[in-house]
Amino acid sequence: MLRACVTCAALVVVGAAASAAPPAVSPDPKSLVVAPEDVTKARDLVQKLGSETYLDREHAEHELAAMGRLARVALLDGANLDPDPEVRARCRCLLPRATAEETKARLDAFLADTDGKYDHDLPGWQKLRSTVRGEWKMFGWTFAARPTLDKAARALFIEFFEAPGGRQLLAALSGPPQDLAQLVATRRTDLYNARFPRVGGVTSHNPSVAEVGVVLFAESLAPVPSGPRVMPITSVLTISGIPALVRGSDDRAVAMRAVMSGWFDSRTDPVDMYQAMTLATTMQNDDAAGRLAARMMAAAGTPGVYKGQALVTLVRLKAVDRVPMIEKAFTDTTALPTNKVVNGMVVRDSIEVRDAALAAALVMTGQDPDDYGFEGFPKGTGQGGLFPYNLAKLPEAKRKGAFEKWKAWREKNP
Questions:
Q1: Structural domain contains residue 117
Q2: Is residue 224 domain-shared with residue 341, that is, in the same domain?
Q3: Same domain as 245, residue 177
Q4: Better-predicted residue by pLDDT, 334 or 383
């Protein structure tokens, strides 16, 4: 088996050196379909990899290497399904080159299709295109919020594909979910270590928009958590150029903004949601920030201080449509520890999440918290987007009446 792999390595070098100038590339991916006779030839050669005659095995291996991508399906089946260990070993040795040629051929066809006339089967392309265009389906029809962004989506996909680690991440989108999650976690760690090297003398590397963007895109599609939180992505995201880019108005900015929105919406862990909400605010993506803040109010296990900041965001955005999500916190007795100065002394006080949530709902619906029994809540709160949740003090004796009054108001104002 070792001899087989050594032979394969030599074949890759020889094959690369002997390659002729490529012909003109067709933009139609159907031109890449392997002819039936080539499929049959490749399968016959795979069987000969298990021949009892050494020369037959070597000849079959040379022939399969020469076929390149045309032999990929046969090699894949041989590597995974053939009962002969010799055949499996030789197929696995040949498969990487055939796969690389197949990927290159698909990418070349994609690049040649400058007008976007054809559908291309490249890992991640259709999902990225759908994300950038803002597609949704209804009654079997596909609609797009941004139908003019095809070219921007193509350009961004190429950036992602050519970024370090990008090809592997995009390819993993069509594989097992756990493999994608692990690869995302690994790339996050790689980016962090490159930015903050732990070894003396190693130059720090600032990641590019594409390097970070493709990780975020892949992570937004990972249906399982990316593993233990070891290295936060926020520290490399903020210096990648993405925050400045998405505040722009050209097509590239809008495309990357859509990718970021997809990543924001995929966050489910309370800490991740809080960090994402902060980033969305920094990037002036108020829609995403509002969605994150609303979900944080309803998410179990969200620390009280995070819910307090979520309320600040919702009041700032005047997100009246999110009031139903705020109401979900009306039973949350989590404490919001606060410090205030009394007679020159710092006094630690506690505000409950439910009280701060009620105060926010009142401010957002144009009501006066004083009418509900709040003590010392500043007048004019909400103007200019300010909401001091740490001052939402509702005495225990007045709490029941305050929430009953809200319920009565809500019945009249559904």
A1: no
A2: no
A3: yes
A4: 334
Domain closes at, from 266, 292, 321:
266
**375 in the same domain as 313:** yes
Domain membership of residue 210 as a residue range:
122-266
Mean pLDDT calculated for residue range 343-347: 69
pTM: 0.80
In a domain, 190, yes or no: yes
SS (H, E, C) the chain: CHHHHHHHHHHHHHHHHHCCCCCCCCCCHHHHCCCHHHHHHHHHHHHHCCCCCHHHHHHHHHHHHHHHHHHHHHHHHHHHHCCCHHHHHHHHHHHHHHHHHHHHHHHHHHHHCCCCCCCCCCCCHHHHHHHHHCEEEECCEEEECCCCCHHHHHHHHHHHHHCCCHHHHHHHCCCCHHHHHHHHHHHHHHHHHHHCCCCCCCCCCCCCHHHHHHHHHHHHHCCCCCCCCCCCCHHHHCCCCHHHHHCCCCHHHHHHHHHHHHHHHHCCCHHHHHHHHHHHHHCCCHHHHHHHHHHHHHCCCCCHHHHHHHHHHHHHHCCHHHHHHHHCCCCCCCEEEEEEEECCEEEEEEEEHHHHHHHHHHHHCCCCHHHHCCCCCCCCCCHHHCCCHHHCCCCHHHHHHHHHHHHHHHHHCC
Q: Above 90 in pLDDT, residue 1?
A: no
